[in-house]
Amino acid sequence: MRSILLVVMASVMMAQTPTRAPAGQLQTFLVSVMNPTGQYIPDIKPDDLILEENGVRQEIANLKPDTDAPISLGILIDKSTSMRLPVATQGGEKVSAALLAANGAAKVVLKLTKPQDEYLFMTFDDVFDVKQNFTSDSKKMTEVLSKNLAVGGSTRLYRAIGDALKETGKKAKNRRKALIVITDVHDTSGDKVEDLQATIRASEIPVYTFGMRWDAWGVPGEDHLPGQSTYEESVLKMMAVDSGGYSMVVDIPNLLSDYTITRMVDFVSTIAIDLREQYTLTYYSSSSLPQAERAVRIRSTKPDYRVRFTRDEGKSQNKK
């Protein structure tokens, strides 16, 4: 009888003992894992990943699929003078085929999103302009895109992307955010790409870049060697890699070919899949350093698998 009483008392005491909260600030990341062929890997478990902060391995507190989370998507389209060629005919009027292709790619994005998603449409030349604030009305967005036919002005690309990231981050109602940039990459402002690089890293918003390439791409006065990335391609890749996005390039002279159109649709489809096939990963950091001084690395236990991740600013603590 005495032994039974002791067991009961111990059970009551254990039940009354408060659960100790995990130490440190909660850190949240959006993570996706791909195999060597670029296919997304489902059913990822915490043991499949290695998480390090400033070189020290951390324990993953939670990892769960997040395919139904709504997305706030910013779309930024270049409408500067350099986008004027080639010329196409629409409704009896001559318009920029490059701009039509850019608008068409954005419309495909809308068709691949979900009703709870929201969209922000912006354009730029030497002036940044918000054409449509965030809305979940895809029909309204399609109508606005269909009217985006005028080109003109110089190209202030780097400043415009910084402004677009600020608009997206400030006005989005969803914690999952992304920016799509469609441009020919000819920045004529004299702004420094290094300043843009710092802005992209600080924003924690993935940037998907869509480059419209002319044969003349390259740094003025420098020869372009076969197999070597041009300056424009390097800028596009930097924006994508530094933010956790993707980049692709199409050739403007072949813009209306079936091959180019197929590639554009495939790329847009990849963006839609990438935004959906993500996991939410959390861990508790014991570091007192601000986020800017925390070097986080997430990799797969399989060396040939690739892990892409961005910080979920809406969930992480200690954002000093």
Describe the structure.
The chain has 320 residues and is α/β, with parallel strands linked by helices. Helices cover 30% and strands 29% of the residues. The protein has two domains: 23-67 and 278-311, no CATH class; 71-276, von Willebrand factor, type A domain (Rossmann fold), CATH 3.40.50. The chain has seven helices and 15 strands. The strands form four sheets. The protein has a six-stranded mixed beta sheet, sandwiched between helices. The protein has a four-stranded antiparallel beta sheet with strand order 4-13-1-15, with no helix packed on it. Mean pLDDT is 83; it is low at 4-21 and 217-226.
Features:
4-stranded antiparallel sheet; alpha/beta; 6-stranded mixed sheet; Rossmann fold; single chain; 2 domains; globular; 320 residues
Brief summary:
The protein has 7 helices and 15 strands. It has about 325 residues and is α/β, with parallel strands linked by helices. It has 2 domains: about 25-65 and about 280-310, no CATH class; about 70-275, 3-Layer(aba) Sandwich (Rossmann fold), CATH 3.40.50.410.
